[in-house]
Amino acid sequence: xxxxxxxxxxxxxxxxxxxxxxxxxxxxxxxxxxxxxxxxxxxxxxxxxxxxxxxxxxxxxxxxxxxxxxxxxxxxxxxxxxxxxxxxxxxxxxxxxxxxxxxxxxxxxxxxxxxxxxxxxxxxxxxxxxxxxxxxxxxxxxxxxxxxxxxxxxxxxxxxxxxxxxxxxxxxxxxxxxxxxxxxxxxxxxxxxxxxxxxxxxxxxxxxxxxxxxxxxxxxxxxxxxxxxxxxxxxxxxxxxxxxxxxxxxxxxxxxxxxxxxxxxxxxxxxxxxxxxxxxxx
Amino acid sequence: xxxxxxxxxxxxxxxxxxxxxxxxxxxxxxxxxxxxxxxxxxxxxxxxxxxxxxxxxxxxxxxxxxxxxxxxxxxxxxxxxxxxxxxxxxxxxxxxxxxxxxxxxxxxxxxxxxxxxxxxxxxxxxxxxxxxxxxxxxxxxxxxxxxxxxxxxxxxxxxxxxxxxxxxxxxxxxxxxxxxxxxxxxxxxxxxxxxxxxxxxxxxxxxxxxxxxxxxxxxxxxxxxxxxxxxxxxxxxxxxxxxxxxxxxxxxxxxxxxxxxxxxxxxxx
Lengths: 282, 269
What we know:
By secondary structure, chain A is mainly α. Chain A has 13 helices and no strands. Chain A has two domains: 22-174 and 275-279, Tetratricopeptide repeat domain (Serine Threonine Protein Phosphatase 5, Tetratricopeptide repeat), CATH 1.25.40; 179-265. Chain A has helices at residues 2-36, 40-49, 55-67, 71-80, 88-101, 105-113, 120-136, 140-149, 158-173, 179-188, 192-197, 200-223, 229-279. The relative contact order of chain A is 0.08. Chain B has helices spanning 2-15, 21-31, 35-48, 52-68, 72-80, 83-86, 89-98, 102-115, 121-133, 137-148, 153-157, 165-171, 177-181, 185-207, 211-266. Classes of the chains: A mainly alpha, B mainly alpha.
């Protein structure tokens, strides 16, 4: 009787193993279905509720978090996927991408460097992704070198590769602008510093406003007297706007540079995301 | 011996865990008011479902989860996936209405009208309320009359007298007049005084032959205060219209629901 019970128990444990494996597969497919249909919130709820474990589940968690832009959690989950897993390459690519979104460019490059692809398509994708990260780091030389080694005729990345080159050209073409020069220019001619920073409209508006106040001050100085209330009020306003304009021009250079970098970084992140989506569809 | 049997039964239960359990899990989460997880579990039922009936059932229950959680937009989005097949336009229209998406609420009832031979009065009420919110009182009244008779004609006759936006715009060419028309007399006087002071300063400076001060100081400042007054008047007119419509619609809603409830209570059983 005991022997029969023992055999039954062993059989059931084997069955449990199969059921666990089936459940993991079902959970993985379910999370991919949710993300694929735009139900990111449900996907996060699903991965937060699951008691299942394994590489597939870690990947599914990473993917759900990534989709919901919970990037820190995504990195942790993707990094848990074991090297022996068939999902390791993809998890590493997405971990790198999540790090890039978080602004951790060195970590993003390190994650990619840990990959050792066996097939040429993945190796090509790896070079492309690494080139994208180098462009985020503004290492134009490394970007050019990697892109020259990349087969940009690959349909998965052809369009995005052209975009990356365009962003590269824009970055290369934009010379460095000094906040000091902008300040000095605005001190000489109000608004000129803003034009130098790249804000033509703001520069003209500043010139007209400050210039008008200065003209009013001058007129009252000449026609009335320097101590006339109109001269004092207009003079004080002119001084405030003049100084404010110099400060604004210095800030404009920094703001414009931040805007330029942000705009290009968003484009780069998009361009390195799309080939990953095209390469790995679930 | 007993230990073996217990282990055997436990493992059997776990090993035979099937897809059918998803519904039970979701239902228990719903009963425990964990609507977020319940909605996810109902979606799992949809994912695992092999029949349309099960899919529809799961989607309807998922929509209920969102409705209970007060997330009417998501409830409506879920119902959009099955309303046509389930013919459950009433719920769809209600969720759109509760999500303040009145145009879609009206559209859902119109779809229902096209497909159904007869239409439930409660659905018509949702359409009427949505039409009221959209300011389409004539259409709303026509529907009200179709199932309530002329009981509410007097309510619809006392429509809110809304401010005409074009009139506000043209009146505010005289600073402050648009404000007075929009019911903001105090602000109107302030706007008039401010613009008159700036204009007076410009004229005074012109008489003093201070042309630059007159043009750049006076007229320049007036170019900011004058359009600013116009925009302000239009804002207050819009606010007046919104407040008045909201108040009127709230009263109308209350009257419609009262009338409907009294009709239902008088109806023979």
